[in-house]
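Regression check, zinc ion case 996:
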Amino acid sequence: MKGLKKTGLIFFPAFDWAISPTHPEREERLLYTQDQVFEEGLLDFENIVEYKPGLAEIEDLNRIHICVPDAKSVITESHLISAGGAITAAEKVLSGEVDNAFALVRPPGHHAMRVVHGARGFCNINIEAVMIEHFRRKYGHKRVAIIDTDCHHGDGTQDIYWHDPDTLYISIHQDGRTLYPGSGFPDEFGGPNALGTTINVPLPPETSDEGFLHVLEELILPVIAEFKPDLVINSAGQDNHYTDPITNMRFSAQGYARLNELLNPHIAVLEGGYSIEGALPYVNVGIILAMAGLDYSHVREPDYNPGSIRQSGEITKYIRETTKDVLGLWKKRDSFKAGIVKGAKYARRNRNIYYDTDGIREQQEETVRICDDCGGFIAIDSMASTGNRIFAVIIPSRSCDLCRLEGERTFGSVNKAKLGAHYLFFQDRDRDIYLVK
Amino acid sequence: MILGIDVGGTHTDAVLLDHFQVKKKTKVPTNQLHLVLSLIGVMDEILRGEDLAAIERVVFSTTICTNAIVQGKTDRVGMIVASGPGLAPEALRVNEDTRFVAGYMSNRGIEVAPVKKGEIAAAASELKGAGIGHLGVVGKFSTRNPAHENEIGEVVRSDFRHVSLGHRMSGNLNFRRRIATTYLNASIFDLHSRFVGEIVDFTARTGIEAPIYILKADGGTIEIRQSADQPVQTILSGPAASIMGILSLADCSGSDAIAMDMGGTTTDIALLADGVPLLEPLGVTIEGHRTLIRGLKTKSIGLGGDSRVRVDKGELCIGPRREGPAAALGGPWPTPTDAMIVLGLTEIGDRTKAEEAVAEIAGKMNTSVPEAARLIFERTCQGVASAVKTMIEEINNKPVYTIHEFLQGKKLAPARLFIVGGPAAAVAPRLGEMLGCQVVIPQDAEVANAFGAALARTTAEVTLLAETERGSLTIAEEGLQMKIPAHFTRKEILQIGMEKLRERARKLGARDADIEIEIVEDQEFNMVRGFYATGKNIRLKAQVKPGLIAGFGKGGALS
Ligand SMILES: [Zn+2]
Ligand SMILES: [Zn+2]
Ligand SMILES: [Zn+2]
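Current build output:
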């Protein structure tokens, strides 16, 4: 068989964990997927190996998140296992044991932002980001491309890597005007020090395989080729499926498999996907076969009817234009900085963040140092409806000396009482330091 | 009295037990061409002068079917496979005579596409026309709903001598393995039937009226007539006999343990969790066929007392081949046994020849004869110990799917090593040290296999899937689909399961005293559709696990 690849599968369906009994993120979610994967006998293929997930450590969370008041109180064991599963996937790839790996784990993570006051969009911690910073710590700095193919905009992952020029984040998702979380427009294009390494492609409702694959071939693959990442990660949500109960798209198992064949990710991590019976069993079998380089052409949903889920000509035209526009932005990415910064030393973002799963509101002011040599040190002032107020200083990966110096000075000079903050945090990626005052 | 017979590669052993004590033992050379003759021969001999009316049971462990598969002397089989979407048909093909037909069930056992009778009849008549007498019929998810396999079976039954249906082979999911298992079952059906016929005739002629059993790969027994439909369950019973033998010769309960049989060519390793041998999670593998045949988890490594020892580019290499007996016993090459003789760990054979053989190795390694012997011995023990450790590690790293198991999962930690075989006494102390185990060398080990077969109880398994919303309950192994009331709970399903398992075990030959039931899978899910809970999805698996028949005081009954 051509192009056979050794694929690691980390399967952790957490059959005893749910957000609540009837929540989409419940025990039953991967039950039929398990049945399908077992019945197809995928684990009997010599080139598909199943691994038990490891357990992420609290330090792995603190390397990327500012959890309020601390990591232990915003997670359960399930989160440590799903993040641990993602870490195991990366570990197997980076150690050379397998060519690629799929962390088919739950709960998901791509709505979890840098600061965590609680759960948003069924996510508490960002399992991909936890994984990425874990392997960067262990294997040295890597350029990473995260392709978020979940139907929802991965606003958490975007937030975490907004200022990181070494992490390319591309999200394709249902247009934010029609779906949670309401963000992910083309003008969300990265912070001033990392313009173009955040790319958003909103797609209209009822986009089908044709539309997704068009964006992949015409935009994502060329951008990846230019960015030259060491690793490509598919943040593999499966809620674009035509049967998904909480979205309006028309993606099929064939489309997902083809997408993974073309994208050829080193690591895929399951995100959303709540059509647990009509979609997930077939989509996951398709993805696993495609990643392993096996024939997926016979994988089909029981009610698959390509004619009835074809996208309209209007949608095709709209997607072609959006793709062209976004590609244009990417090509001109280096020309925007001066106009945005206007000579300032710092750039500031003020946001209201809503934690829909836990019903928490957060007000956040984020300040980044404008820098041409690194992602820039970041200061965050955050206040949540829980009553918690925090102040955090983050020294980025591969920080320049000046950003580190200023960041350290800022942390040293803040006055907890004067700020009205309950906790002060200091996070230094390069030195793997995490301090709480 | 109980009669146990083990047909081995070289010898056929028989033991006659009276009140669980060996009354007689006999050994005849195995007639590889006519295994039945060996069996009949050994029975003739051991039963001479015995009161046949006093025989309570007879158990065989035979290699007839295993040998046929290994030697490729099986019947040509036609396969009708209702494959449905998923893997490409080419990945499912088990032979040239596989035909793919329409029809499939979903993972919940709901029909998605019906079978087409015309298409099936055409495929069947083509296969029949090619002179094929045996058919295997397999459908996707047939363990969730056997209707398609049954329908196909109805269409084709009259055209073939026998039709094997996939869902009868096992309750486990795995379409490819179900196909392989069904194929193998059909391919040895005639051979096994003939064997059963001959044995039944012989015993009837001789006047034995006791039930007759055959040992299966899972270390359990099945009544011989009941085995006729499922010959595939009897393959690879050899390793099972050896492990059941160890169980019957020593008291293995109380802690986790390693059971080891070190022979001339190979060392076979099995693991016991509190006295119960571990099973392969899905099924055994034979001649490259991964199957759904329940079998004990065993690992065989090419390292034994007669393994050839050589030096390759300054490196000491042991095994994996045996090229004759130890030099001390007239063999052509140095072996670990020769090293053990030099070290004074055993006193067999000609010591001078052993020293000469080891001297050859010592010369190539620039060391003294005792040092070379020590190295060979040490390396042999290390090879075995590391295979055991890998096996334990694999079991302890087996993926689990709940947080509870992930955090609380029991780890296998063997505290004792039971070892039989030629070099057992010589290697036991060192192996025990390496593995951190207390060592036990059961006595009378030469009849272990026959003894183990004689005392093995009948095993059985049932797999249940209930959906209360649809009011459906499937018992895969029995091909049973029944209606249940929507208010049924896990407890009521469990009761049905236990009752069905009891019935099944009795049918397969179990005595009531031996039906010790264990629940091996127990899951219950809320099914939620459109944000409302609509019912329960309940999954249970219960088994009569491998073990010894009731009444037998475990261990040491021979001494
Ligand atoms: Zn997305
Ligand atoms: Zn989503
Ligand atoms: Zn800087």
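Comparison notes: Chain A touches chain B through 43 residues (CB under 8 Å). The CA atoms of residues 24 and 136 of chain A lie 33 Å apart. No diff flagged against the previous build.
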